[in-house]
Amino acid sequence: MVEGDRRDTAGADVEDAASVRRFLDMSLDLLGICDLETRLVEVSDSWERMLGWSRSELLGTPLLDYFHPDDLPRIEGELAALLQGLDAPGVTTRVRCRDGSYRWVLGNARSDLANERIYVTAADITDRKGLEEALVRQVELEQLVVSITARFVGTEADGMEDEIVRGMGELATALGADRAHFLRGNRSLDNVSYFEWLHPDTGQRRQEIDPMVTEWWFDTMRAGTTLRLDDVLELADEVPEVVASMKDEGIRSLLHVPLPFKRSTWGFLALVTLDRPLGLDDDALALLQLAGESFMSALARADDGLALLNARRELEHRNDELERSNEELERFAYAAAHDLKAPLARIEMALAATPRPEGDAGLLVDVARRGASRMRQLIEDLLTFSAVGRSGTTAEEVDLDELLAQVLADLAPTIDATGAEVHREPLPTAWGHRSLLGQVLQNLVGNSLKFVRDDVVPRIDIIGSQDASGTTIRVTDNGIGVDATRRHEVFGVFTRLNADDQYPGSGIGLATCAKVVTHHGGHIHLEDGLDGGVSVVVWLPSPAGDAGADG
Which residues of 299-319 are buried (b: 16+ CB within 10 A; e: fewer)? Predict the structure, then answer.
């Protein structure tokens, strides 16, 4: 090669290098070139714009040093694939900024083993990740409020206060609060119910509550004011003595949610943090108000239940009092479900309007959609449970054998699909409501077909007997069974002892059976079944022994 050709080639190399540099400088995404030891040999200026690292600081350092420690095992697995000549597309991970914080990126990498290079690109998805995580948190909080409200339906009056404190603790823990306070009182505040939950590690009191602070809480509640303070010092000019007392108690941030006036009572729900801002958005605020209203309704129902209990002790034969109590419980269930539908509808609309992204973000959106669907099913099942006892029919003698034949015919597709062997003996008659007793048989046989063991042919035995006192039905299977120490739990509303993804359902089937059987004046319990399975035993009284099924 002549001297002139060399100069031309060198000039072209310089021009190519300058073009590559300009290309790197113009990129909004992170661009980098590493050797096979992941040491950076070239980077774009976007590293400094996005993460704060200068080019001189990055060159020669291992790229692995900048990933979040929790993500390193996965990144090392991707690196192993790169060193075998494979690509690493669509990798979601966290990259460390110069100030020590982390940003989420979606990266791609390709190796050039012949030239001992690895080429990396990454786009900043921190904002999108934050929105996705916020949406998932909102769905989880919505589901928590549904669960708390559903538990109130199945709680006796004397256990309601403990259930409210439990719900307060669950809400506070989910939202990162150290303390939760709930108050219900009349206008003159001469009849007040006050509850508080303190985090066992971080929420304990340093001193007794200052009466001045208590009075300030009452004034705030009377005014119907919502307070959302990242720092209570924001009130220093308005109520300096109150703020000083709060600071002595270690309070940093608080949220005060007034609750609307209902049944001559009003109240508030408040959350407190001691060393950090609470930082809740408007959607979380709306859910907290909904939770507070459910606390108010639960207390009202508990008050009515206790009053009914006292009245029943004096007037044991006043069946109209018992009927009014049951009607109020059903109205509460309908009201609770109705109140929960509005925020759930907003969540479902937002999810429906959100395009499904690729990768991990799409999985998160799928989780959120399944969660919303699950919540809607919970609400509908709650309505089903509360409707038991309002059949509108008259009790009669029911041919259980004929009723079972209809149930088995309805379940024939499931029986065929599972290959189940159903063995039955002729069932006697029973006194009750045909539709409700059919629902019991449907749920019991359906559960035996659902909770089966892998690689075991399902078997279901159905037998019955009758004597002067009443009728007994046994549905026995060889399924997964129920731990003897937990058998009493399965009749609770929305109680599930197995994972949703393994055995789908809302957990209301046996609760409905128990309510129907109780409505007929009978009882239901579990015993050992076949080969580790379970046997559900139902006893229904004869018409001479109970009048409960006539309603």
Answer: bbbbbbbeebeeeeeeeeeee
Residue 326: CA count within 13 A, CB half-sphere: 16
**120-135 pLDDT, tens digit each:** 999 999 988 888 877 8
pLDDT confidence tier of residue 547, bands split at 50, 70 and 90: very low
Write phi, then psi, for 75 (nearest 5 degrees): -65, -40
Q: Where are the beta strands (DSSP E) in 274-416?
A: 396-399
SS3 345: helix
Instruction: Tell which residue, 426, 434, 412, has the closest CA to residue 462.
Output: 426
Cβ atoms < 10 Å from Cβ of 68: 13
Q: What is the pLDDT of residues 60-111, one digit of tens each?
A: 999 999 999 999 999 999 999 999 999 999 999 999 999 999 999 999 999 9
Q: Which residues have a Cβ under 8 Å from the Cβ of 382 and sit 6 or more positions away?
A: 150, 153, 333, 336, 337, 493, 494, 508
- Tokens 């006192």 label which residue? 469
Structure-block tokens of residue 379 = 């609400």
Tokens (6 digits) for 479: 């399924």
The 10 Å CB-count burial string (b at 16+, else e) for 221-248 is beeeeebbbeebeebeeebeebbebbee
DSSP conformation letters of 113-165: GGGTEEEEEEEE-HHHHHHHHHHHHHHHHHHHHHHHHHHHHT--GGGHHHHHH
User: What domains are there in the chain, each with its CATH number?
Assistant: 3-124 (3.30.450.20), 126-158+293-387 (no CATH), 177-277 (3.30.450.40), 396-550 (3.30.565.10)
Q: How many CB atoms lie within 10 A of CB 256?
A: 18
Distance CA 438, CA 49 (A): 69
- 8 Å CB contact between 286 and 250: no
DSSP code of 67?
B
In the chain, what is the greatest distance between 2 CA atoms, to the nearest angstrom?
A: 120
Q: On the CB side of 302, how many CA atoms lie within 13 Å of its CA?
A: 20
Site of tokens 């099942």: 381
